[in-house]
Structure formats: structure tokens, C-alpha cells
Design a protein that fits this description.
alpha/beta, 6-stranded parallel beta sheet
Length: about 220
């Protein structure tokens, strides 16, 4: 079956790999207390944002106790350890990609993470060459999630209207971004993200098998 009028756009953190489990703990226990030591900032406020934009947000909303350079160094050191040593690939993800390829459905990564982090994941889990486009928030003109720009850009890279794309997201900012762009939104519920507002999503799924079935049904 060929379905080149549809594409699937995958968020990376929390969907392709379980990195959100680690990021949330790191941000809550180490990064935020050091950057904004006098205020308890809910991790959900920054989840799904590009880390460079996180600094701007924290500085504007709360004031920060570290410089931008120190903040970026903290995040980059944490990321190297996290992506090279800790994270695991979504169960059955290679099989899902193969089934989408069999149907001629283009796929893309649409991530707030920088290309260096995305490349670590692709190399570590044998995903090089598996995607038709790799879109990082750092590689687009315009704001990252929760604004729609990154999803509009990804659809443009694939040459498919964003309204014909299926987006898989796990965070509030990601869901809002994909919905604002006009994609069909699949929310992948993970334990790390509690109290999410799933209103932007068209479908909510709870495990890798349900995610696979839902994605394949939506591209039929």
C-alpha cells in the first residue's frame, strides 16, 4: 500500500526514546534548583521546549542565578550522559518504521533537541537513514514548541500539507505545537508527565503496542 499523501512526525524525547524520564528528574532535582534556586518551578513549564529557549523563559519569568553559558554547559553535559548511557528505544520502534516504509509513508523526527543530541540517538539505536527529514528547533527560523513553526517546517521538508500529517507527542508543549499546526495529534501518555491537558490531542495512547496500532490505522 502506498500512502505518500500522509506522513508521520515523531517527537524524539519521551516518544522515540524514554529520555523524558531522566530529564524530568534531572531538571527537578539538579538543574532547576541551581538555575532558579529561590523558586520552585514546575518542570512541566519547560518540558518540550528547546533548552536555549528554556533559559530565556526562566530569565524572563523568574530571574536566573547562572549565566546563559553556564546554563548551556549544564544542559549539554547532562545530555551527553543521558543519550549515550541511559535512554532506551521505544519498544518495537524499528518494526513500526519498517511497516511505515512498506506503506511508503514518509517519517520525520521533529524535536526541540539540537541536532547533536538527535544524532547520538540515531547512531546509538541504528536509526541513521531511517527518516526522510530530521527537524530540530535549532534549525528553523521562528520559535520552537509550543508554537506551530517546527511542525509546519517539517511538513514543508516532506512536501506534504501539515494537515495531512500525524504527529506523535508526549509533552504539553509538543501537543500544543502539533495541534496549532493542524496535524492529527497522537498523545503518547508516559508516567513522567502527569496532569497533562490532552485536549489538543485527537487520540491518546498508553503503550507502544497501542501507539503502533493507532499510527498505522491513521495512515491507512
Amino acid at each position: 500500500m502506498s500512502n505518500t499523501d500522509t506522513a508521520v512526525l515523531f517527537d524524539m524525547d519521551g516518544v522515540i526514546v524514554d529520555s523524558e524520564d531522566y530529564w524530568v528528574d534531572l531538571e527537578r532535582e539538579e538543574l532547576l534548583p541551581e538555575v532558579v534556586p529561590h523558586t520552585e518551578v514546575p518542570v512541566a513549564e519547560i518540558t518540550g521546549m528547546n533548552y536555549r529557549e528554556i533559559y530565556d523563559y526562566l530569565e524572563a519569568e523568574y530571574g536566573t542565578a547562572v549565566t546563559r553559558e553556564e546554563f548551556l554547559d549544564l544542559f549539554e553535559a547532562a545530555a551527553r550522559d543521558l543519550y549515550t548511557e541511559r535512554v532506551a528505544l521505544l519498544e518495537g520502534f524499528h518494526d513500526l518504521l519498517e511497516e511505515l516504509e512498506d506503506r511508503d509513508v514518509p517519517v520525520a523526527i521533529v524535536s526541540s533537541s539540537p541536532h547533536d543530541w538527535i544524532d547520538i540517538v540515531r547512531e546509538r539505536f541504528d536509526l541513521e537513514g531511517a527518516f526522510d527529514a530530521i527537524v530540530s528547533a535549532e534549525g528553523i527560523e521562528g520559535p520552537g514548541k509550543p508554537e506551530p513553526d517546527i511542525y509546519e517546517h517539517a511538513a514543508g521538508e516532506l512536501g506534504i500539507p501539515v494537515t495531512d500529517c500525524v504527529a506523535v507527542e508526549d509533552s504539553q508543549h509538543g501537543l500544543e505545537s502539533a495541534a496549532a499546526a493542524g496535524a492529527t495529534v497522537v498523545a503518547y501518555r508516559i508516567d513522567t508527565h502527569t496532569d497533562l491537558d490532552f485536549a489538543p490531542a485527537d487520540v491518546v495512547v498508553d503503550d507502544p503496542d497501542e501507539l503502533r496500532r493507532t499510527v498505522l490505522e491513521l495512515v491507512e
